[in-house]
Write a structure and sequence with these properties.
The protein is mainly alpha-helical. The protein is built from 17 helices and no strands. The longest helix is centred in the first third of the chain and has 31 residues.
Length: about 400
């Protein structure tokens, strides 16, 4: 059997991956998660129930799932670079649309568009980042983790802007926040459009590789539970902080702590991410995530909430990276877009169910604590399931 050809080195891989990471910065850090910051004011201004508020993240997740279902075919047709760029531009357009109207249908469409764009930008970006990282095998896990720090930058930036914008302009200013997010996203999009981020990438031109669900079914179920569990925390925690008496500064601090934690994940989890032992690295990180999600259930003290934000954030960003590392360890490069898309589909189904179910629980029980309980439990069960995933054998490896 012929030995595999060593990957061709790519100049400045860290810089290229950091530029590519602007796609999830915009699509996820801002496009998806900034909604949580404007949710309390939007809900008050427009008279929404918690179920209606949860629906906005559910419809976003529907778009994300739909995008994931077609992502591998889209990437095959237009390439990784175009997928990243067009997906990001769709998310920028959705931000502007959110600023233009308080109509429930229009806002739902905007959230749907954001999900579609995020799937294309994230899956294409993850496969592109994995390709770039593979050119430096000794540093591949560290380089890949840089990509997953992207959403943290978006969360940090929106956390510094949104709460104080709402405070400055008063009740009903949620739409002004969306304009601020749109302007920020436009500035961040420029490097993605101008830099040669696709240099050296050949995945889109490679022969398609098969992906079998059965060998990784338990891993996919664990990732589904992560998708369902984390979204309740990220959707409703700002409302939980506010309900506990947290002002704009407290809300900003909480959100920024989640964002800042992303920047330590490449170093903190680097050895765990390098573990080529099936789903063990995912199980470890997901278990820590469950602990972070469960801490607010013990009270509203600033120290407890700060610890929760840090523990949740530092594991949340690494968790998504661990699934891409799992794909990189267990599949040939030609299968990466399809395998990453499969992971994203499982994650996306969980995201669809998570917000609307937790919103309904909150409406029925009258307290966010019950929804957060369910969230932490799903994350814990997901960690247990991921631990049972065995290592696969890549074609060409004996």
């Amino acid at each position: 059997m012929r030995a595999p050809t060593p990957p061709t080195p790519i100049a400045h891989p860290a810089r290229l991956i950091l530029i590519v990471s602007l796609a999830p910065t915009i699509c996820l850090g801002i496009g998806r998660f900034a909604y949580s910051l404007v949710l309390p004011d939007t809900r008050d201004s427009l008279g929404w129930s918690y179920s209606a508020a949860g629906f906005m993240n559910t419809i976003n997740a529907v778009g994300y799932l739909a995008g994931a279902l077609v992502a591998s075919n889209v990437i095959k047709r237009i390439g990784l670079t175009a997928s990243v760029r067009w997906g990001t531009l769709a998310c920028v357009a959705s931000l502007a649309l959110c600023a233009l109207s308080g109509n429930f249908v229009i806002l739902s469409f905007a959230r749907l568009l954001a999900g579609l764009g995020a799937a294309a930008g994230f899956i294409g970006g993850a496969a592109l980042a994995a390709t770039i990282a593979q050119s430096r095998p000794a540093r591949a896990n560290f380089l890949l983790s840089l990509f997953y720090a992207g959403p943290g930058l978006g969360i940090l930036a929106s956390g510094l802007i949104a709460p104080f914008t709402l405070q400055a302009f008063g009740p009903g200013s949620w739409w002004i926040v969306w304009w601020a997010m749109t302007g920020l996203a436009i500035v961040m999009t420029l490097p993605l459009l101008l830099a040669p981020i696709g240099a050296g990438s050949g995945i889109a031109d490679a022969a398609p590789a098969k992906f079998a669900i059965k060998p990784v079914l338990i891993y996919l179920v664990g990732y589904f539970l992560f998708g369902a569990g984390y979204i309740a925390y990220m959707t409703f925690m700002i409302a939980y902080v506010r309900d506990g008496g947290g002002d704009a500064a407290a809300q900003s601090a909480f959100w920024c702590l989640i964002g800042v934690s992303a920047f330590v994940t490449p170093w903190l989890w680097r050895r765990v991410l390098a573990m080529d032992r099936g789903g063990l690295s995912t199980a470890i990180i997901l278990g820590v995530n469950a602990i972070g999600a469960g801490l607010p259930l013990f009270g509203h003290s600033p120290l407890l909430l700060a610890t929760s934000a840090l523990v949740f954030g530092v594991s949340f960003f690494a968790l998504v990276g661990s699934t891409t590392a799992f794909v990189r360890f267990n599949y040939p490069p030609a299968a990466w877009p399809t395998a990453i898309a499969a992971m994203t589909i499982a994650f996306g189904v969980g995201q669809i169910l998570g917000p609307i179910v937790t919103g309904a629980i909150t409406d029925a029980m009258g307290s966010l604590s019950y929804a957060l309980n369910v969230s932490a439990a799903m994350l814990a069960v997901g960690a247990v399931l991921a631990a049972f995933q065995r290592r696969l054998s890549k074609p060409g490896q004996a």
